[in-house]
Amino acid sequence: MYKIQTLDRISAKGLDNFPRDDYEIASEIVKPDAILVRSHDMLSMQLDSSVKAIARAGAGVNNIPYKDLGQKGVVVFNTPGANANAVKELVILAILLASRPIIQANQWVETLKGKGAEIAGLAEKGKKDFIGNEIKGKTLGVIGLGAIGAQVANIAVELGMNVIGYDPYLSVDAAWSLNHQVKHAETLDTLLAKSDYITVHVPETPDTKGLINTSTIKNMKDGVKIINIARGGLVNNEDILAAIKTGKVSKLVTDFTAEELLSNENVICLPHLGASTPEAEENCAVMAVKELMDFLEAGNIEHSVNFPKCRMDSPIPAGGTRLCISNKNVAGVVSKFTSVLGDASYNIASMINQNRNDLAYNLIDVDGKVDKATIEKLSKIDGVIDVRPIYA
Question: Which residues pair with 56 in a beta bridge?
Fold first, then answer.
């Protein structure tokens, strides 16, 4: 019986994927095997040593100390792409809100309440104060062409925009998904200089924090419109407000509200609505649950932010053991695994080793049930972080 702790409200559609005969799910649970989380702050949480994995039902993991957890052998998953459609739609809305004063127009129309038959005439007369621009023919710069950025780029092309994308880490899968009309910028400065609109779709890391700042803004077109539905820290608020004051930036639409941004007529703040649709919550929950099940039952790792992708699709040999071993990525460790197993007369049926930065992960299928003494010897190998047996 696997124990799963939920730290937030997780969509029932996702939780229903757990076979209830094999899983216990609760918000309060003793010695959980894994944790499901959305936005709960885990940065200062003390986790029980029983926790082997955490799945974030969403893409961002800035609420999880995933680097530290990796050093303890805890695999942290996220769900890239599961909420991409919801975020994409909000980005397109943000581009339109930055182009036409729709919110202000609605607020003004509300002031006509009580004027009866005069309303139609007053509305017709007042519309001249709410003129905006069309987006067709304008250039959109998309920084980051992952699951969301690629979808934004593609739909912007369909809406008649010229689209430039920049992503130095563009994956093959993402490249295949892009509309052929999306142009590739060799440098960030190239994108900044050509774009009428700029939307950012990168994770917040030490390298990307404050990506939109005085230095990058000076390379942009005058009157540029900036969209940030990704992470609040990607934009330096003080710098962008200064640019708005001079007219260098004409509009900012952000999904991250801050005191200094409020009451500025050229800033539209939203309350982190990016993935706030039932469809996105369900998609993220389903994906997170399946990632945990695949890890707990078969040892496979897919979409981890701190461990390498590693999977063995063949079933565990009948009556055998699958050893899931995490270790420091140093030379000679794998040979020690085989030595220990060989000394104990265990036959290795198959194995795979993958690494990511300073961590490595191994799946080793062994004929027969590996005893506790051998598990203990494997655990004591220098550099080994965790050994988890899965018995067929």
Answer: 37
Distances (CA, A) of 386 to 52, 71, 322, 380, 389: 9, 10, 14, 9, 10
Is 311 considered catalytic here? no
C-alpha to C-alpha distance for 113 and 16, rounded to whole angstroms: 48
From the list 38, 56, 201, 231, the catalytic residue is 231
Q: Reply yes or no on whether 9 is catalytic.
A: no
3-state secondary structure 36-62: EECCCCCCCCCCCCCCCEEEECCCCCC
**303 carries an active-site annotation:** no
Distances from the Cα of 36 to the Cα of 52, 78, 211, 307, 314, angstroms? 12, 10, 30, 17, 27
pLDDT digits (tens, 9 = 90+) for 29-80: 999 999 999 989 999 999 999 999 999 998 889 899 999 999 999 999 999 8
Q: Which of 70, 39, 38, 27 is nearest to 52 (CA)?
A: 70
